[in-house]
Specification:
Strand content: under 5%
CATH topology: Farnesyl Diphosphate Synthase
Radius of gyration: 20 Å
CATH superfamily: Farnesyl Diphosphate Synthase
Number of strands: 2
Helix content: over 70%
Number of helices: 17
Number of domains: 1
Oligomer: single chain
Structural class: mainly alpha
């Protein structure tokens, strides 16, 4: 792929730097997660810890912690509790998504619904949502509750919209972008906006951080779309083409269908709508996406969202926090290379 990003840090180093800046706060988040997912019903912490342990570097709660420090928050507790809320909401949506998508793996390991069944996964997801709202109420700040409850409802709307467009090759780019804006970017936006809110900063800074998070989330998801069709996926320990095998309609496919001739459209309908696939179909899909420049074009859109995210931070003074948040945009996009 020819699209490149000029940045002083490699993607993993960029995220590692941000994580190191919030390491003390993140340790408290992890301790709070363990404490708050406890339940006398043994299956709940067992299942919840399975998926939380597979949650990677906790980018979303890290955004809450970092944005709070960027905006001068000097407290010890509120940002930690709200970052935990963000992680619980995120984990609950993963549990529900895996059930809806009938996913067998989560980050290369058996998904919770495979190990414990769909019913348990849905109910533990509900438990984590409830825990998140308990933490919001304990915070006691109505604007915080408004942001997180709104984000939760938007995520649910996005999940339903995705369900309505599942396996539909007529899905438009506009509709798909609305899906990922709701399903993915809304939580990035809420996580980032909480920082200036707990720091007591003016509405302009809240709006700037919300814009940063929203556009970062859009870029993050579009890169995920590309990764599913990329050899880079194998280096990350994942299988190429999972989205294709499940008939998921993502932006590369939407662009491929839009550019397709009649024979190619028939191929996409057979493989994605009817899920009538054979072993030669994934290589053909990859060839078609390359032929029509679909992966490159998706990355160009990701770069555009990344540029908008960086622009949103311009109003903040230079600091290690600001530089690290800028570099995290690079991390999100350079995962594709």
């Amino acid at each position: 792929m020819s699209v490149m990003v000029n940045a002083p840090l490699g993607p993993e180093n960029a995220l590692d730097l941000l994580v190191s800046l919030v390491s003390d706060d993140l340790r408290q988040v992890n301790e709070t997660i363990i404490r708050r997912m406890h339940s006398p019903v043994v299956l709940i912490p067992k299942l919840a810890s399975h998926i939380i342990a597979a949650g990677g570097k906790r980018l979303r709660p890290v955004l809450t912690l970092a944005s709070a420090r960027l905006c001068g928050y000097a407290g010890e507790g509120r940002h930690v509790m709200l970052a935990t809320c963000i992680e619980f909401i995120h984990t609950a949506t993963l549990l529900h998504d895996d059930v809806v998508d009938e996913s067998a793996l989560r980050r290369g390991k058996p998904s919770a619904n495979v190990l414990w069944g769909n019913k348990a996964s849905v109910l533990v997801g509900d438990f984590l949502f409830s825990r998140a709202f308990e933490l919001m109420v304990e915070d006691g700040h109505l604007p915080v509750l408004a942001i997180l409850s709104r984000a939760s409802s938007v995520i649910a709307e996005g999940e339903v919209l995705q369900l309505l467009t599942a396996n539909d090759t007529d899905t438009t780019e506009e509709t798909y972008l609305e899906v990922i804006r709701s399903k993915t970017a809304a939580l990035f936006a809420a996580a980032s906006r909480l920082g200036p809110m707990v720091a007591g900063r003016p509405p302009e800074e809240e709006a700037a951080m919300e814009a940063y998070g929203l556009n970062l989330g859009m870029a993050f998801q579009l890169v995920d779309d590309v990764l599913d069709y990329s050899a880079r996926q194998e280096k990350l320990g994942k299988t190429i083409g999972d989205d294709f095998r499940e008939g998921k309609i993502t932006l590369p496919v939407i662009l491929g269908v839009a550019a397709a001739d009649a024979t190619e459209r028939t191929f996409w309908r057979r493989t994605l709508e009817d899920l009538d696939q054979n072993e030669d179909d994934l290589p053909r899909a990859l060839d078609l996406l390359q032929k029509h420049d679909c992966l490159e074009e998706t990355l160009r859109r990701a770069h555009a969202y990344g540029d908008t995210a960086r622009t949103a931070l311009q109003s903040f003074p230079d600091s290690p926090w600001r530089r690290a948040l800028l570099d995290v945009v690079t991390f999100c996009i350079e995962r594709a290379y």
